[in-house]
Amino acid sequence: MGSTTPQNQSPQKRGRELARQGQALFFEYGSVKAAARKLMERHDDLPSIQAFRYAAGLSQDQAAVRYNDVAGNQTTLGGTTINAWESWARSRGTAGVGSPPSYASLLILAAAYGRSPHRMGEEVISPGDLVQEAYEKLPPEDQLALKMTAVRSSIPATSDTLRVRNAVVDGSPDVDNIIGADFNLLVPTIDNGNPAICAFSLPNPNPGHLLDLTWNTFGFGIQRIMRQIKSLGRRLDADICFGINEAGLVMATFLASAQFNRCSIGYLRCNRARNAISFAPESHFPDSVEAPVIVICDFEVKHADVVGLVARELRERYPGAELYFAVFGAMTKGNTLEVESFEELTGAKIIQAATFEAVFIAATMSPPGIEPPLELR
Fold first, then answer.
1. Model pLDDT for residues 163-188, shown as the tens digit of each residue
2. What is the Cα–Cα distance from 159 to 167, expressed in whole angstroms?
3. Residues 6 or more apart whose Cβ sits within 8 Å of residue 257
4. Which of 52, 131, 297, 305 gives a 20 to 30 Å CA spacing to 259?
5. What backbone torsions phi and psi does residue 41 show, to the nearest 5 degrees?
6. What is the pLDDT of residues 258-284, one digit of tens each?
7. What domains, with CATH codes, occur in the chain?
8. What is the H or E stretch that residue 249 is in?
9. CA-atom Rg of the chain in angstroms
10. What CA–CA distance (Å, rounded) separates 227 from 241?
11. Which of 243-252, 296-305, 307-316 has the lowest mean pLDDT?
12. Tally of CB atoms within 10 A around 272
């Protein structure tokens, strides 16, 4: 018999819990269909279109990205549309609540969710599976189209249709990283700015080993930082983007080009010797205006106070500078990646001591950390 999540639970917390259950069920059954079915058995009020998303390991924004990818990026669907479809399904098609997906959208969404949480396989999902409970509220034309494609399947629990890709390039499996659920985190920010950023977690399926990131994940994280910058509360125009080491330099290059109108790019190559950190001569400090706005990009923050050293160096070289800090991965103190407070991050005190104007974090990670694509250092 199904169960429902406690009504007094916040939507955000409930979403994180459903996402956790969805991914766990996928790994238990090896099938998005089976995971979605089990998830709906546990939660009577969960619509199928939302259950499939959780079983596929996607947030609403990630589902939109996957949708656009399946459509060959000829669409620009956003997470708000995914939310509108799920709201419509939760209300069982009640007028004025959300909006129904079209038949064409269901075809694309079914293909997107069939790619599994980490894109290791492809599973055939019927578009009718996604709208079981609200099927009769669809326009007649869409109902007819779904009938012609074997609508309202029983969602079999077999994994026979799951095809795992074993392609290997230079010893690395051709698979994407598992992306955890989105969660909001309050971080240091400007006066009257928006302190809430939307980050995601990076679960490590091999604890004790570095998590090798794919280019897809790396790009997704940079996009997330860009979205946080746009949601700061006021326009941020950077004069210089500094990258810490090579991975940070790649981040700075993308941000400078896509977000900051091709502003100047700086480079800080850090050398470590006997627990001391210094800047190599190859570091580059571009000329700039007086009291510039500087965005510092770092790939990860753990225990070492690299950002503190960087902040002191840049304030000395650029008097009166406004410093902002963008990091791809922040390590957590405990086992829970979806932290509820900034203080639960390993580098929280280090970042706070640097007194940045604002902080942007793409993802959280567990020890020993993450490795950038192509082992950028």
1. 222 223 333 444 578 888 788 999 99
2. 20
3. none
4. 305
5. -65, -35
6. 999 999 999 999 887 666 778 889 999
7. 11-164 (no CATH), 177-375 (3.40.50.2020)
8. helix 245-258
9. 22
10. 16
11. 296-305
12. 10
